[in-house]
Amino acid sequence: MTHPNDQDAKPAGPDSGDPTEFLSFRIGDDEYSVDIMSVREIRGWTQTTSLPHSPSFVRGVINLRGTVLPVIDLAMRLGLAETDPEDRNVIIVVDAGERVMGLRVDAVSDILSFTKDQLQPPPDVASPATESFVKALTILDERMVRMLDLSTVLPGIEEIAA
Amino acid sequence: MQEIMASFFVECEELHEALTDALQMMADGEHDVETINVAFRAVHSIKGGAGAFGLDDLVSFAHQFETVMDGCRSGDLGITDDLVQLFLRCGDFLSDLIRCSRDSDDINTSVAEGLIGELAGYVPDSGDDGPEETVDFQPTTLSLGDLGPGGPALDLPADLPPLPDLPPLGDLPPLDATAHPDTATTGPRQGLSVTFKPEHELYESGNEPLFFLRALADLGPCDISLSFDAPDDLVDLAKSGHRLSWQIDIDTEAGPADVHEIFEFAVGLCQIDVTERTAATAADAAPDLPAPPADDAPPPDTPAPKITTPAKPAAKSAPKTATKASPTVRVDLERIERLVNLVGELVINQAMLTQSIAEENIPPNSPVSAGLDEFMQLTRNIQESVMMIRAQPVKSLFQRMSRIVREASTAVGKSVKLVTEGDTTEIDKTAIECLADPLTHMIRNAVDHGLESSEKRLETGKSKQGEIRLAAAHRSGRVIIEVSDDGGGINREKVRSIAESKGLVSPDAALSDSEIDQLLFLPGFSTADAVSNLSGRGVGMDVVKTQITSLGGRITIDSVPGKGTTFSISLPLTLAVLDGMVVTVAGETLVVPVNAIVESLSLERKDLNPVSPGQTVLCVRDQFVPVLDLGRELGYRNAICVDDGAIALLISPEEGILVAMLVDSIEDQRQVVIKGMQESYGRVPGVAAATILGDGKVALILDANDLVQNAAGANLTEAERKAS
Known about the structure:
The structure holds two protein chains of two kinds. Chain A has one domain: CATH 2.40.50.180. Chain A has five helices and ten strands. The longest helix of chain A has 6 residues. Chain A is globular, with a radius of gyration of 16 Å. By secondary structure, chain B is an alpha+beta fold. Chain B folds into five domains: 136 residues, Four Helix Bundle (Hemerythrin (Met), subunit A) (Up-down Bundle); 143 residues, Alpha-Beta Plaits, CATH 3.30.70; 50 residues; 179 residues, Heat Shock Protein 90 (2-Layer Sandwich), CATH 3.30.565; 147 residues, CATH 2.40.50.180. In chain B, 41% of the residues lie in helices and 20% in strands. In chain B, the strands form five sheets. A six-stranded mixed sheet of chain B has the order 14-18-19-17-16-15. A five-stranded mixed sheet of chain B has the order 6-8-9-11-10. Chain B has a five-stranded mixed sheet with strand order 20-12-13-22-21. In chain B, helix 1 packs antiparallel against helix 2. Chain B is flat and about 100 Å long. The chains are: A alpha+beta, B alpha+beta. At the A-B interface, strand 4, strand 5, strand 7 and helix 5 of A face helix 14, strand 21 and strand 22 of B.
């Protein structure tokens, strides 16, 4: 909620910019987060229907109250180790502009609030792929939290259909 | 005003369609009076409407058009082919004019003047009928509110005897018969007899009969009487409310239409009979009854003496009755869309219900099961009716194409005849709109590239006039639209050399005829040596193909050198629900559209005969049929594994070709709701859409033909990939 009144109520100093809230979640031991405004809902893991000829990171589709929702395995999308889905996994339904997709993650952990000052751009040494997926980094209680860029994380229609 | 304008333009489209239809019939040699009348009336109505909105360009053009047509109607002008061609061109221009008027665009006045000039050449003396004609659509001013003393005499011709002065309505004395002989001579429309019998619903919906009576009284002096149909028993009184009826005799110049206008919002809530009184009945209809003044209509509880209504016998012959219902309703497409979605949900819900009832082990002959069967039947009926709302005949689309043919053939100087078939075939409204562009491209291509020049046609022994055929038909759950010409066919050598010179295909690639034809769909391909106005800018067939594919359709070419080329577009009916066979393959549940399946066979291991590596055939009634393992095609498993009891679904992607598709088992046959995946995910090869089964799981709906094509046309896709 970036309502002006909300901002005034927050303890953030005048120089620290507008605070943004992020939903953080775990994949393996790593912590990632997405802008909370793009999160539609969080669901428990349901068995997906796999799609033929799809890239490995596409888990398949699920029934989201009558609509067919594609589910991306975020670990595989980010090039992390493949894990078999467990019932404790969750699907974060995100809405990035025109596309709505589900992201399979291990567990949702927290809602974090950061100002722009607290976010750092990822260093240049990162591999080209990760660099484009992660748009910012920050430190929270000596843990590193990565902010994902949903517009690149969600594959374009051309990318899947190719 | 904007809204009225909008509805005028919608009407114009309909009228123009009727006009085009009639003109086309005239072009086909139908010269009878009724056809000309239809065309004339259409133009006349457009002119009338345009006049009311002050669209002067439209009026003047339509007027000239109509004048010439009127000459044909009266037989003064003979109908010649040239004249019909001129009419057709005028019809096209009229639609341009309508469009320009609607969008407030500039109008090409030179074309208008040219056509008006041509039309004027047909009018013997075009000077004298202009002003007289325009009287027809001048808005008639009815001074209804002004019916005080002398009111009814206001607009009467001068030579009629003056009416006696009438006192204001409020204190109108009962009309006596002596007043009538005078009014009776004022013309054929001196009065109306209205029988007004409210139904129970009228009172229930809060309407007040008094207001209707007052409104009627505004039309002219009224003679109102109430009759009360007393029930035999007081108990019956409550059951039926329509015991009261009024008989109103009005001395007015207004026609029945004005009365119906008053009762417009009470249609269906009351019975209205309106008759125009003739002089004789008018006199008869004025019995010396003490009819109270209008503002003092009898309270419902005073039964007036029953009077005989002299208008009754005439009522049957009255031109209009109040129960006249408008034949069409214009509905926002979005609302229909919502209805379609809801019906989709209903079908899913019903499947879930069926599943849970099956799990409860309820015996099949129980009332629950019987009720469920009925429910399924109803759901199916609802769904079919909803789909019918969206469907529209392709006629309007084809009519637009006849114009394209006319324009294109004039531009390239070829004589072309368009033959349409199956224009009553109904397809989804959105599909009609999306097809207009691709079809226009294809028609232009056919005229420009497909047909040879007239000289060449004569050389090859063909008739001078080329023919383009546009046909639509429903075939096995899809709509097939064919555009064919009787031209020279595709010059495959030329196509190939062009593709090579443009680097679209490698020179040493071995391509079959149909593969060469497919090259036409590659982006950046153009065969015309000279870029003409019409086509040949290299944006053509590839765009057509993309558009058709985005509708879920396919396009194929069939060309015979010297005989002509046929492009067929095959579209799904875009129904939201289809009959599907639920099958399992390698643990996955899939849905195969029932209309794609020719037959299903139970297999044994020995029925399958390997022919070459990766190719297996099945012998069905002495015919060898290629086998396609669904699990392998979709990437669920690597090798064909057939246990005894596996099922082969025979599908026929094209006429005369059979392919056997292997599945593990058939689970069910049921209606499934199509859920699109294109927007959220994109196209999956071999998969048409998805659906949700009774257990809430998503199952994929296969596109059997696409699967077969992918398997068979793997080489071509390779070539396409190289090319791009």
